[in-house]
Amino acid sequence: KLSFPLPRATTNLITCGDRFVCPLFMLQMMKFAWDNYKRYAWGKNELRPLTRNGHIGNMFGGLRGASIIDSLDTLYVMGLMDEYNEAKEWVQTSLDLNSNGEASLFEVNIRYVGGLLSAYYLTGEELFKNKVVELGEKLLPAFNTPTGIPRGVINLGSGTSWSWGWASAGSSILAEFGTLHLEFVHLTQLSNNPIYTEKVMNIRKLLNKIEKPHGLYPNFLSPVSGNWVQHHVSIGGLGDSFYEYLIKSYLMSDKTDEDAKTTYYNALEAIEANLVQKSPGGLTYMAEWRGGILDHKMGHLACFSGGMIGIGADDGAPEKRQHYLDLAAEITHTCHESYTRSATKLGPEAFRFDSGAEATATRLSDRYYILRPEVIESYMYMWRLTHDPKYREWGWEAVEALEQHCRVDSGFSGIRDVYTTTVSHDNMQQSFFLSETLKYLYLLFSDDDLLPLEDWVFNTEAHPLPIIRTNCLQNEATQDKTL
Ligand code: DMJ
């Protein structure tokens, strides 16, 4: 069993006891994850660390190398330059965008477009810019619907698009069509083609116009009629990053996009009025809403909202600033509780607040942990905003748990049940573990001037995108500003 002392801050180095410099430890975790991906799954989308082979899956159409694209910026920011150069060379020689498969518009956007954009902005390498503009063009046919709301699935070769079979009545998903804005605005910046911004502004226009039940945004919308298809509202899966991109659109516009700001705060007020709950034990949580009936469940995915509400706090009405910071801290605390109440000290996929449960999973099917970042993401933002040492302590608890339960001989793996220490691994090292979980941990233990929040916003896959300054030339790489 691994046992590391808690981190403590010295003047500018964060050490974990006398043995480790914490960021260095994250770097070693990243190198271990990367080396094993390289050895057993190079060019595939993800590593299967138990069977020591690659996984392709069906989210990215024929695109390959998701773990490479998702890792470029993490490797670069950590200074793992040999590994970054291997990744760059693969993009140069092997990233084939002429694929014919059926891809998720959302996943390709957040991982591939986001990963290539941030690689370009960090390094200034034209290669990434050329690739991302080429890829951006292939996504445009998904918007050819009667309303301009894109469908969820697109064939990158033929441009044909359709809705997910599981989405009710051919609908599009809020968190999917609502999580394009940051990347598409940057595609316009890099290509000098306004079409990308027009496409996402059209989505916003429709959402502004449509009537919202109690001010809330349901998760399913018809791309044909432009009406909501059913009234399920969630700050977790299916809804989550739509809200995230509202406040981040405002921040990325150098606080000029007032419309995004207003929409965000109106949505947050509706969420507070209808979804935010306090458990009998005093834990604040976000319930889900089904046509007016509350489901007292919070997904791991919803735990990003602590960080989101935190970064938005400063720009709310002055009398509400402290209130939003408190709400952000309370949600982050609840998500930490979902970790501490498990045997592995990792949190379940969903936890409940009914039938006597308080931040624990009650269903077998909700007990898994797939290396997701959201709880650690909120620790990172809350650390940057408050410098309360508890966030670094909580981050270190997560590192210990990952090392103890998710590290296997050939990489990191998700686990099937966080409530038993006799773990069963799911044999998957998700690409977001390299792009998000390890990056957020690294930033949590680094100084605030590494990718400062005044200059960068992170897309929902943790790829940093520069804030667009109104008075600057925008299509210059910004590498020398921060690294
Ligand atoms: C990531 O791909 C992104 O963070 C997305 O917004 C939600 N899910 C995963 C990680 O859990």
UniProtKB/TrEMBL annotation:
Annotated organism of origin: Sphaeramia orbicularis (orbiculate cardinalfish)
GO terms, molecular function: calcium ion binding; mannosyl-oligosaccharide 1,2-alpha-mannosidase activity
UniProt protein name: alpha-1,2-Mannosidase
The protein's Enzyme Commission number: 3.2.1.-
Pathway(s) of this molecule: Protein modification; protein glycosylation
Function: Involved in the maturation of Asn-linked oligosaccharides. Progressively trim alpha-1,2-linked mannose residues from Man(9)GlcNAc(2) to produce Man(5)GlcNAc(2).
Protein family membership: Belongs to the glycosyl hydrolase 47 family.
Subcellular location: Endomembrane system
Residues bound to Ca(2+): 460
Residue positions of the active site: 107, 240, 349, 374
Gene3D superfamilies linked to this entry: 1.50.10.10
Lineage: Eukaryota, Metazoa, Chordata, Craniata, Vertebrata
SUPFAM superfamilies per record: Seven-hairpin glycosidases
InterPro entries given in the database record: 6hp_glycosidase-like_sf (IPR012341), Glyco_hydro_47 (IPR001382), Glycosyl_Hydrolase_47 (IPR050749), Seven-hairpin_glycosidases (IPR036026)
Taxonomy, superkingdom: Eukaryota
Top EC class, one word: hydrolase
Annotated S-S bridges: 303-335
Membrane topology: Single-pass type II membrane protein
Reactions catalysed: N(4)-(alpha-D-Man-(1->2)-alpha-D-Man-(1->2)-alpha-D-Man-(1->3)-[alpha-D-Man-(1->2)-alpha-D-Man-(1->3)-[alpha-D-Man-(1->2)-alpha-D-Man-(1->6)]-alpha-D-Man-(1->6)]-beta-D-Man-(1->4)-beta-D-GlcNAc-(1->4)-beta-D-GlcNAc)-L-asparaginyl-[protein] (N-glucan mannose isomer 9A1,2,3B1,2,3) + 4 H2O = N(4)-(alpha-D-Man-(1->3)-[alpha-D-Man-(1->3)-[alpha-D-Man-(1->6)]-alpha-D-Man-(1->6)]-beta-D-Man-(1->4)-beta-D-GlcNAc-(1->4)-beta-D-GlcNAc)-L-asparaginyl-[protein] (N-glucan mannose isomer 5A1,2) + 4 beta-D-mannose; N(4)-(alpha-D-Man-(1->2)-alpha-D-Man-(1->2)-alpha-D-Man-(1->3)-[alpha-D-Man-(1->3)-[alpha-D-Man-(1->2)-alpha-D-Man-(1->6)]-alpha-D-Man-(1->6)]-beta-D-Man-(1->4)-beta-D-GlcNAc-(1->4)-beta-D-GlcNAc)-L-asparaginyl-[protein] (N-glucan mannose isomer 8A1,2,3B1,3) + 3 H2O = N(4)-(alpha-D-Man-(1->3)-[alpha-D-Man-(1->3)-[alpha-D-Man-(1->6)]-alpha-D-Man-(1->6)]-beta-D-Man-(1->4)-beta-D-GlcNAc-(1->4)-beta-D-GlcNAc)-L-asparaginyl-[protein] (N-glucan mannose isomer 5A1,2) + 3 beta-D-mannose
One annotated GO biological process: carbohydrate metabolic process
Keyword annotations from UniProtKB, A to Z: Calcium, Disulfide bond, Glycosidase, Hydrolase, Membrane, Metal-binding, Signal-anchor, Transmembrane
GO cellular component entries: endoplasmic reticulum; extracellular exosome; Golgi membrane
Cofactor: Ca(2+)
